[in-house]
Amino acid sequence: MTDTQNMPAVLDMLCPMYVMINRTGHITHVGPTLRKLRPEMAWGGARFLEVFALKRPRAVTSVTDLRDHAGIKLHLQLRDAPATELKGVAVKCGAEDALIVNLSFGISVVDGVQTYDLTHADFAPTDLATEMLYLVEAKSTAMEAWRKLNLRLQGAKIAAEEQAFTDTLTGLKNRRAVDHVMARALQRDSQFALMQLDLDFFKRVNDTLGHAAGDHVLQTVARIMVDETRSEDTVARLGGDEFVIVLPGVRDAAALRRIGSRMIKRLEMPIPFEGRECCISASIGTVFFEPGSGANMRTLLDDVDVALYASKRTGRGRQTFYNEDLRQTTDAPAHAHTGDTNRKAVIMRPVPE
Amino acid sequence: MHGLIYRALQCFVTDSYGPDRWIEVAMVADLGLVEFEAMLMYDDAIAPRLIAAVGAVLGRSEPDLMEDVGTYLVSHPNTEGLRRLMRFGGVTFVELLHSLDDLPDRARLAVSDLNLPHIELREYSSSHFSVICGTSIPRFGHVMMGLLRTMADDYGALALLEFQGGAKGTETVSITLVETEFAKGRSFALGARAS
Fold it and tell me: Residue ranges of the Heme NO-binding domain (chain B) (predicted)?
């Protein structure tokens, strides 16, 4: 290289963040953008290694070392605050042992541009710095849109769960569905039967064989109940081991008795789980809704509860049809009202088919 | 078509005319929804119906309306991010014009499934250009005209833009640059962030 006189002007355009260093390690020229990082500093004549600390490679401690590491990626940092980190590469230039070190912000370009208020014009037209800044902004904007979408979807998911009519463990309907079905039937004043079924000895299964066994039992029970009812019936799990069945248009006690006893019989068959057997039974309370009776949701649920309680009290594994006499019994549930007639409870034992 | 495009129309109506007018538009266009999600895809067939509905509800012609959408996209405070992304295209308005060919690629870099219509700049002299663009977004030429007119202001350049008509799936906007440094323009710092 014989003619290097216009070299600074060329480099100012091609790589405006370079430093030219002479044989003794003093700065002779600085690119316009690099100058912007320390506009007040007297660059000319300053020692390169007093302005920049070389972080890597660590072996470089003198300008001779720097010359030996020409062509290798350098990690540098400005010594005074703000201690901006820079990437660089040194190349030997000319016959006089001069060095050119070209610098860039590397990955810190976003911070660098903010800290020193740089513009398009501070980067060479071929430099990808502005493209990188564009991408950072574009991607942040897109990411924010995704984040908002996710928040909205999460909100929608919670709302959907709140409005759901399904019990997730068993796939049966849930309490909200029962309320909905009964409210509609009551509104239309159309006849239906309501069965409430509580598992007996379920707690024992849960306690001795664990929750996985308990869940398996609940799912098996659900399947049996669906099997034993019609498609137009609503089978629901209210929570825990409590179930309810709404049977529209059913007023035949004998038919209900058959359904109840068949269900209990099947539930009493041991349910295998991981080599063990889960033994449960079920108690059922049943009530009819007759159009024009004036019964409402609250009284029906209360009546069915009284009937269920009677089944439990008289030895479990039974179905009891509600009548007002059941309320006369001494240990009726606290919330059950006391009736005024004195007929005997009709208690059904499971009838073998 | 990308939800961002539909969402832009929704935000234009909501920010400029209020949410009630948008709900009216959604009903007239029989969208079956009220909110477009910016990051989901929607049927292309919705676009012409939606634009017609916005025009009908606001009592505006479609070309005027879509030009306003272009202006809105780079001037409303809610879309400051987009203005900034446009300013990354160049230091001057002319540089921005020269970067338009890359605009669809730039958009794809940001959101990989966002497909903008093809855009091509033709340069007849240092002050006379035309922008030819595809119409995969209906009336895209008018959107570009509003957008570029506003960006000229943004750079402080004085430019005359005229819609030259369209044919065979393209629309053309002519641009005559009267003065590059007519006014101060709006500030743009590379390192600032749109909030």
Answer: 2-155
∠ CA A313-A317-A322, nearest 5°, is 60
| B91-179 is a CATH 3.40.50.720 domain | no
Q: Are A181 and A307 contained in the same domain? A: yes
Q: Is residue A340 domain-shared with residue A194, that is, in the same domain?
A: yes
Per-position pLDDT tens, chain A of length 353? 456 678 889 999 999 999 999 999 999 999 999 999 999 999 999 999 999 999 988 888 899 999 999 999 999 999 999 999 999 999 998 878 899 999 999 988 989 999 999 988 899 989 999 888 889 988 988 898 889 989 988 988 888 877 889 998 999 999 999 999 999 999 999 999 999 999 999 999 999 999 999 999 999 999 999 999 999 999 999 989 999 999 999 989 999 999 999 999 999 999 999 999 999 999 999 999 999 888 999 999 999 999 999 999 988 889 999 988 888 764 545 444 433 333 333 444 444 43
Indicate whether A144 and A264 sit together in one domain: no
> Would A2 be classed as within a structural domain?
no
Per-residue pLDDT tens over the stretch B50-75: 999 999 999 999 999 999 999 999 99
Tokens of B108: 């794809």
Residues A192 and A120 in one domain: no
**Which residues, in sequence order, are bridge partners of residue A245?**
A195, A235
Q: Does A154 touch chain B (CB under 8 A)?
A: no
How many distinct structural domains can be found in chain A? 3
CB pairs under 8 A between A and B: 58
Q: How would you classify the pairing of strands A281-289 and A319-321? A: parallel
Domain that holds residue A68: 7-127
Q: Is A113 on the interface with B (CB under 8 A)?
A: yes
The answer to whether A133 faces chain B, any CB pair under 8 Å, is: yes
Closest-CA distance of chain B to residue A164, Å: 21
* ipTM surpasses cut 0.90: no
Decide if B88 and A114 are in contact by the 8 Å CB cutoff. Answer: no
- The partner residue sitting opposite A137, judged by closest CB among B37, B39, B193, is B193
**CA trace torsion A352, A281, A223, A323 (10° rounding):** 80
Per the annotation, the verdict on A80 as an active-site residue is no
Mutant choice from A135, A137, A154 vs B, greatest count of B C-beta within 10 A = A137
CA A104, distance to chain mean position in Å, is 41
Decide if A133 and B191 are in contact by the 8 Å CB cutoff: yes
Residue of A108, A120, A127 to mutate, testing the B interface (most B Cβ within 10 Å of its Cβ):
A120
Where are the extended beta strands (E) located within A68-123? Answer: 74-78, 85-93, 98-104
- CATH code (residue A259): 3.30.70.270
CA angle A183, A185, A191 (to 5 degrees): 140
Q: Which residues of chain B have a CB within 8 Å of the CB of A120?
A: 90-91, 190
